[in-house]
Amino acid sequence: MSLLELTDIAVEYHAPGRDRVRAVDGVSLEVRPGEIVGLVGESGCGKSSLARVAAGLAAPTAGGVRLHGEAVTPLGRRQRRRAEIGLQMVFQSPYSSLNPRRTVLSQLLDGVPAEVGDRAERRRDALGQLTRVGLDEAAAGRYPHQFSGGQLQRIAIARALAARPRVLVADEPVTALDVSSQAQVVDVLAELVEQLEVGMLFISHDLALVRRLADTTAVMYLGRLVETGPTERVWRRPKHPYTRALIDAIPSADPDAGLPRVLNGEISDPGAVHDGCRFRGRCAQAFSACGDEPELAGDDHTVACWLENEDTERVA
Amino acid sequence: MSADPDTDELLAVENLAVRLPGPDGPVPVLEDVSLSVRRGEIVGIAGESGSGKSMTARTLLDLLPTGAEVSGTLRFDGAELDHRDRKAMHAVRGHGIAMVFQDPTAAMHPMLSVGRQLTEHMRVHLGLTRTQAKARAVELLEQVRLPDPEGALRSYPHQFSGGQLQRIAIASALAARPRLLIADEPTTALDVTVQAGILGVLDSLRSDFDLSVLFITHDLGVLASLASHTCVFQHGRVVESAPTADLLRSPEHPYTRALLAARTDPAEVP
């Protein structure tokens, strides 16, 4: 049974005097306990909009979010229901997601549920969260500016975990960090997901990072999923030309590999989506069938591309 | 002012040490840093935050905070760079050495059109007329492969994506035909797909215009096929300096090995 279920999510933005922008257009995803789902795509593809909906921070224009089968209502001017606290988020910048004027301990205590016990027990619990992410208990009395970016992000993770979440939504949690801190934070996340049996939706523009961490990979382009499947299969045998382009763009430390291959063009304006396959304009393999929009098809490893559709060969 | 004819060395940094004022006396941020860049060569500087890689770049352009103590030798284009000589430094900045920063949105003025920002300093520093400056701006935007350069000049920074803005920032840095471009983490804030494009642009500027680039990054992989030589920085020192291919194939310093192990490489598929 899936833990977090996103069904047919659509997110629209409407700025005055401008057309509606459909940032997310019919995305369905699910996260099971102990599973890490990696969502990859370029800036502007709608992945952060989807993350905010998944974490219950914003209301989708259409579609629904279910946590343990129960509908999640978006945050408003009310206290969250206990069950919904099971949904926690880790943001991209730890500098702005932690309060600079409060100690680490006091911010961790925000998340520790009242059931844990009296003051001393809750304090012990908060310290336990710190050691769990690999920080010293002495960190508790300090303020955010006394830490490096990687340490802060681990504190942000500890705070999210203090609330006993069942699902973590992490939106580009390591993008702002150095390669070596990235590795540490990613390893901490992977370990915790396994230990605590929580599910995680991990969002990144870096497919190499997603490969290191995620069990399942979902690739998003201009508001839609174009490929999903078990991470190693997606990585080794990418079916969608966009997924292949993302892999080719990653610089390799092999000096013989040559410069990373460039994908032509930039992600187009989500306010002016043309008919047919959305990747068509940048795709080297586009052909006549791409005038119609392909559906996500397949069993385990799904792809939305006419090249992978057996019927197309007859058409072409 | 003439360069040694036997060498095509453009920049040489020897035994550079920088100390910044701290609450308990000067704090050393760079110690015994030596590196050199030849004409038409891309040299990489790799290291983590706080390793001193950006400080090295700032020292070259004299962009250090006040009170900084600098010692060592800096030689650019055959002449010594003297920070006390403000007039000489002014001539080097922009004409000799230009810089591109990590965050292209912060490098551009949000309320001035791209055309105004690109042409203004060309008119002031190079004495070009309005028409000449505009033609040069279009040429520069073509060099960095920005689509529709004419239209771009009339647009404002918020109308571009991060990758496009970084291309514009590179074009702007190249306006006064510098010999050396310092690129301080120019692709860190960008998507991998966009990063690939910027790396391509820098490499073609090097081969087409003999531009030298000092490329600063925390990701060794970015340097693999771009830089011919790489210096690895740790705690304000150069811990390893070698031709990039050798450095990646057989890293000698444990810190270089750790940096390499930390990254997830697409080539490592068993």
Any idea what the shape of chain A is?
globular
The CATH topology of the largest domain in chain B is: Rossmann fold
Helix content of chain A: 25-40%
Architecture of the largest domain in chain B, according to CATH? Answer: 3-Layer(aba) Sandwich
Mean pLDDT of chain B: 88
State the domain count of chain A: 1
Mean pLDDT of chain A: 88
Largest sheet data of chain B? 6 strands, mixed
Structural class of chain B, by secondary structure, is: alpha/beta
Query: Helix segment count of chain B?
Result: 11
Percentage beta strand of chain B: 15-25%
CATH superfamily of the largest domain in chain B: P-loop containing nucleotide triphosphate hydrolases
Number of strands of chain A: 11
Strand content of chain A: 15-25%
Q: How many individual β-strands of chain B?
A: 10
Identify the biggest protein-protein contact and residues per side: A-B, 41 and 40 residues
Sequence stretches where pLDDT stays below 50 over 5 or more residues of chain A: none
SSE series of chain A: EEEHEEEHHHHEHEHEEHHEH
> What's the arrangement of strands in the largest beta sheet of chain B?
6-7-8-3-9-10
Radius of gyration of chain A, rounded? Answer: 21 Å
